[in-house]
Known about the structure:
Layout: E1 26-27, E2 34-35, E3 39-41, H1 46-58, E4 63-65, E5 81-83, E6 91-95, E7 100-104, H2 109-118, E8 121-122, H3 134-139, E9 156-162, E10 168-172, H4 177-183, E11 192-199, E12 201-202, E13 205-214, H5 215-220, H6 222-227, E14 231-236, E15 242-251, H7 260-284, H8 289-299, E16 303-307, H9 309-313, E17 321-329, H10 333-346, E18 355-360, E19 375-383, H11 389-401, E20 405-406, H12 416-422, H13 426-436, H14 445-451
Parallel strand pairs: 3-5, 4-5
Antiparallel strand pairs: 1-2, 6-7, 7-11, 8-12, 9-10, 9-11, 13-15, 13-16, 14-15, 14-18, 17-19, 17-20, 18-19
Amino acid sequence: MSSTRTASGRANGRPGGRPSGRNGTWRNWGGNISARPAREVAPASVDELADAVRGAAGDGLRVKAVGTGHSFTSIAATDGLLIRPYLLTGIRGIDRDAMTVTVEAGTPLKRLNMALAREGLSLTNMGDIMEQTVSGATSTGTHGTGRDSASISAQIRALELVTADGSVLNCSEDEHPEVFAAARIGLGALGVVTAITFAVEPVFLLTAREEPMPLDRVLSDFDALWSENEHFEFYWFPHTGSTNTKRNNRSAGPEQPVGRFQGWLDDEFLSNGVFQAANWVGRAAPGTIPAIARISSRALSARTYTDTPYKVFTSPRRVRFVEMEYAVPREAVVETLRELRAMVDRSRLRISFPVEVRTAPADDITLSTASGRDSAYIAVHMFRGTPYQAYFTAAERIFTAHEGRPHWGKIHTRDAEYFSRVYPRFGEFTALRDRLDPDRLFQNDYLRRVLGP
């Protein structure tokens, strides 16, 4: 959810995800997933990582790599070897002729964005969280919102991958193109990504216009709001008819960032501090949630600012939650949202987090949630520690009725049989997996469920 205002053995107590506790337990950011790996490594080079993969295979251990733990599924969980890539960071090189940057897989998006800005460069589009590693974000299909520009993975031009036999495979549109087609969102099933080459462009300015808008108006005008803006998203507050909308468009300038005090007030005090307190109250007394939602939906006023892309696309995230997100065909989003609203209104559910809606154009990545179709994303959230199953189950029933595709890193209950129906190229991915990892070195319970045994 966007808070647009709303070396082997070196592995104890390190940054990147949640450090394993004293008993060797790893937990994700949302606190809903844990694992106890038999061994952890933090390789400082690709050769060290490849050696660790070969060693694990020889010892009969499964292998998973984990970044910052921002997935709400057990996609990175293992009882075998857990690879922590936090020493594999930094920019390998910038090619200004090709307009690409090659970056180590464990590099946080925040560091990449800041380094690119210093070089006068930028990614075209991005999600709203900067703490994720580049490999974790792309492997799960992290996205922002865009009419014409797609996910971070769609901006990949080449990948370096350590495969199950410990060999290093380089892939692009020209080199191993069948691997490239799938590995840009590889779910950790094809190997361990060690470096990524992204397309970049000269840094530009975005003007963001944020303003409240009635939900009925957003739904009736959705096509126009989508078509008239490069990046459109909105947040609906359940139990109300209110939304907060955000429109980002390229600007000739001048740069007019949010003032320091206003930024603190909106993005830290209201969207994090007050919102956290409101969720504590709502968790203790669920009956107060509708009233809190009505107050929250009116707390933020309209604002317009112009800044470099990563300062517009991203925002601080302090309030912890769990999340489900589905991509539905873009033409089905209004109907899907109306059904979701009707479900909430007739239920006894109490929802303290806004519902987030974004879009993406069709892409050509095998298991991208936008593969082959223009898509809209609907994300539902619940405050950490609050029972979420009833809400998510009811929402998922609506999403799947529209052939929704769940985000690979967010809570869902779908399996390989379902995915084989909603992804036309699903068999292409599983056949490639059979070739690259026939012994399922990179298998875990999650991949067994979503890809098959």
